[in-house]
Amino acid sequence: MEVREGLLHLHKTLLESERISYEETFGKINSPYQLLNLLTNDPWFAWLAPLTHLIAGMDESLDAKEPLTAAGVEKLVNQAKQLLVASENGEGFARHFDEALQRSPDVVLAQAAMAKLLRAQAK
Fold first, then answer.
1. What whole-number distance in Å separates Cα of residue 5 and Cα of residue 1?
2. Quick check: 46 and 57 in contact, CB under 8 A?
3. Could you give the CA distance from residue 69 to residue 92 in angstroms, rounded to a whole number?
4. Does 122 have pLDDT greater than 90?
5. Which of 47, 87, 100, 101 is the most buried (most CB within 10 A)?
6. Residue 7 sits in which domain range?
7. Beta-carbon-side half-sphere exposure of residue 13 (alpha carbons within 13 Å)
8. Number of domains in the chain
9. Given a cut of 80, is residue 1 above it in pLDDT?
10. Of 111, 3, 120, nearest to 57 (Cα)?
11. For the whole model, what pTM was predicted?
12. Average pLDDT over residues 30-45
């Protein structure tokens, strides 16, 4: 599913942007284990959870015994569209997503690629 791959790329790009920002504020993250611990336990990274959960939900749907239906795909695509709305005045994911877009050209490019995928799914 192309949308899932696009979301994974966007997630990785957002994670890298947050890692850089975190390190600028608190100092170097010394190991992948420390980063994983921060991802799962530190409020700095908590805003990424909705995207992580959406990807996990897609994985579950793709791995289910029953094949994913067109309606199921449409539902997942709509969830992605609803989540990936940046808002300067919003809260949670929307506000942090907006900040990441302002901070990182890589995030802008990943979001543009994701938006293109979502538009293609709508056709």
1. 7
2. no
3. 31
4. no
5. 100
6. 2-122
7. 21
8. 1
9. no
10. 3
11. 0.92
12. 95
